[in-house]
Amino acid sequence: MKKLILSAVVFTGLMFGTAPLLAQDAPEAKEQGTLVAESGKAETPAQAGFLAVIVGSGWLGMLLWAALFGCGAAAVYFIVDCSVMIRPQKVMPETLINRVKEGMSEGDVMKALQACESEPGPLANILTAGFSHVEEGFDIIQESIGAAADLETERLMQRLTWISVCSNLSPMLGLLGTVQGMIMCFETLATGAPDIGALAMNISQALWTTATGLAVAIPSITFYYSIRNNANRLILRMQAMTMELIKDLRNVEVVSD
Question: Are 249 and 217 in contact (CB under 8 A)?
Fold first, then answer.
């Protein structure tokens, strides 16, 4: 929960920090914040800040912005979480492999099982499933390891699925904001003599939500495929390592006390 809150703060800070850089510069005016037309009538402020766009979008628009920021924060959280968890050091630590190899070379299955229990993780869980059925024959060991491997693979891929959810959801939220902004534009035009400032604010709302949705989706989908490919390679390595570690179980005999 703390990681998710921190991600939300970081994402919100980045959005507010980069928003002024994305906005177009307004034409220079003689009086600060006001344009004077040839007729002498004062116009609305030339440049509306990003915060003003959010506040001016109404309660529905503010809920939409909250959803966009929440989606962005969730994407940051799951990207960091998957990048940390889906690594060789976490999935198949070298110390575990060495201890299991040592136990198997000595013909001591219990020693290898204790090594797995002392360093829990995907590879350790798979090996534990196999070592727990060592008395039932090698075929049962293979079936248990196969079922455990499928379960651990699904757990790893479920983390990545949330990144994909964020990358697919954010453009939809941006599109919803665009639709809301255009509806507000036509409502402003329907009043007869439209307020140019309000009309421009509604258009700005429509464009900003689209841009924000894409700004969340593009990095999210990039990280998703990158981490997923890394996870697939790691899963293949883990499967090969598992078969290498249990091959000696064909000839292991368990002696009961």
Answer: no
**Rounded to an integer, what distance in angstroms lies between the CA atom of residue 94 and that of residue 218?**
35
Question: Is residue 52 situated within a structural domain?
Answer: no
Q: Kindly report which listed range (8-12, 104-108, 147-151, 223-227) carries the lowest average pLDDT score.
A: 8-12
In terms of C-beta density within 10 A (0-12 exposed, 13-18 middle, 19 or more buried), how is residue 40 classed? exposed
Helix, coil or strand: residue 31: strand
- The count of structural domains within the chain is 1
Q: Which range among 22-26, 80-84, 176-180 shows the weakest confidence by mean pLDDT?
A: 22-26
Report yes or no on 255 lying in a domain. no
Q: 190 vs 57, 102, 199, 212, CA distance in Å? A: 18, 80, 11, 28
Residue 224 has pLDDT above 90, yes or no: yes
Mean pLDDT of 141-153: 87
In a domain, 196, yes or no: yes
Distance CA 3, CA 251 (A): 48
**Could you give the CA distance from residue 164 to residue 130 in angstroms, rounded to a whole number?**
33
Burial classification of residue 84, based on how many CB atoms lie within 10 Å of its CB (0-12 exposed, 13-18 middle, 19 or more buried)? exposed
For 115, residues 6+ apart whose C-beta sits below 8 A from its C-beta are 96, 99, 100, 103, 124
Q: Do the domain assignments include residue 66?
A: yes
Domain assignment of residue 224, given as a range: 2-15+58-250
